[in-house]
């Protein structure tokens, strides 16, 4: 859905309209979302600014621009490096612990991503390198958004987080268009594509995501997205005329195997690679809501 628009319009223009359309839909919720944010502290305010400006506007612009420089599959699958960044960010921001064994999953995933990024991994083309760097940068920003979204979910409702993300991201997206000297106007022939992009993978997907994120640790929430590379590759090859070399297929297989193995490990093993802090903010709030039987 994003690729045809990326070919017809500047990346920043696509991101601007994506945010504008979602903000128009969510406009009745904006006053309540900011009232809820006013009850929060500086940490939550900074998180909203980082999610809206970085994870929403800038990351989406980088991801869309990557389609113009590379094949349509590489940005989608490199985006799946997001769990690697998310686990690291979750450790520093949320104090979610990572066991040393996580490297057994992370290193193969990074190696597979390298193979996937380039048709010939020993002969790197500048355009391919730029596309890969843009996709990886977007993945890092989205990983930060996952962790900060988890932080906000302890204080704000999912609809409030979604509303604030797009509302704060809109002026940043407009600033990116202006800085690049792009155009804001689009033709009616792109209206349907922009509307679907804004409402389906934009508003609907993020609303569901923040709903689940409220009760899921950030490092585990990001694992839920790991089935996406297979679908992305099938769509890219089947419908977008993408062609992968043998080493790219190998890289795709390694990435999928690594992240799937990590997800399986977290589900069935008694000692997962990622552990929540036993007395985090969300845990304390749950304890406050649970009546103490000794006091009754």
TrEMBL record:
One GO location term (cellular component): membrane
List the SUPFAM superfamilies hit by this protein, alphabetically. Answer: Multidrug resistance efflux transporter EmrE
Residue intervals of the EamA domain? 7-117, 130-260
What residue spans carry the Basic and acidic residues bias annotation? 284-296
**Topology with respect to the bilayer:** Multi-pass membrane protein
Q: Where in the cell is it found?
A: Membrane
Work out whether the entry's keyword set contains Chaperone: no
Keyword vocabulary terms for this entry: Membrane, Transmembrane, Transmembrane helix
Question: What PANTHER family does the record point to?
Answer: EAMA DOMAIN-CONTAINING PROTEIN (PTHR32322:SF2), INNER MEMBRANE TRANSPORTER (PTHR32322)
Protein name listed in UniProt: Drug/metabolite transporter (DMT) superfamily protein
Q: What species does this protein belong to?
A: Amycolatopsis azurea DSM 43854
User: What does the record give as the organism's lineage?
Assistant: Bacteria, Bacillati, Actinomycetota, Actinomycetes, Pseudonocardiales
